[in-house]
Structure prediction request, 229 residues.
Amino acid sequence: MNPIPHVAHDMSILSLVLNASLLVQAVMALLLMLSLFSWTYIFRKSFALRSAQTQTEKFERDFWAGGDLAALYQSAANNRHQTGALERIFESGMREYLKARDKSVHDRGALLDAARRAMRAAYQREMDSLESHLPFLASVGSVSPYIGLFGTVWGIMNAFRGLSNVQQATLAAVAPGIAEALVATAIGLFAAIPAVVAYNRYATEIDRLANRFESFMEEFSNILQRQTH
Prediction:
């Protein structure tokens, strides 16, 4: 009596991806694309925040060293493309303050209000720049597992539907189809976890920078107020 031949299935990850149904492959391709964009923004944001922190610390040292504010403003205005976020906020406020003073505005409140409005507008622009791409990371972190789960559910449905054409249902017959489907969930988690971790870390760092910017704006406003007196 001849034994029943055993069909070996290649269960490598690449083979599972290539043998998956077209829809599951489309889900995997979408998740890999989201992961690629996510990692690109993660590295870019990491460099940008590190640079912003370094530039902020340098400007704070220069500002609180007790130098001439006019010289500091002139340096910031001449090197605007090389300055950091906090320096640009200072430059905006100082420019409006000097502009109002040169117009012989004698109302001290108007002088300070002009500087505060300019600093607040510059602050908002800098925060918009620092927070760019964070919503994308948040979306990838929240949506990717569900996209992967959709691919997994669809793949498992196909695997069990294929059993209807088999006289004897065995684990060996259904295992490859289920494994192919589960790869979609794995790729979804691979895309989501780094995005969530990066989003939480960068959001915290941006909040710290925002607090430093706001503290500086208040302290600089107090310095301008003393100068008007």
Notes: Confidence is low (pLDDT under 50) at residues 1-9. Residues 20-50+68-228 form one domain.
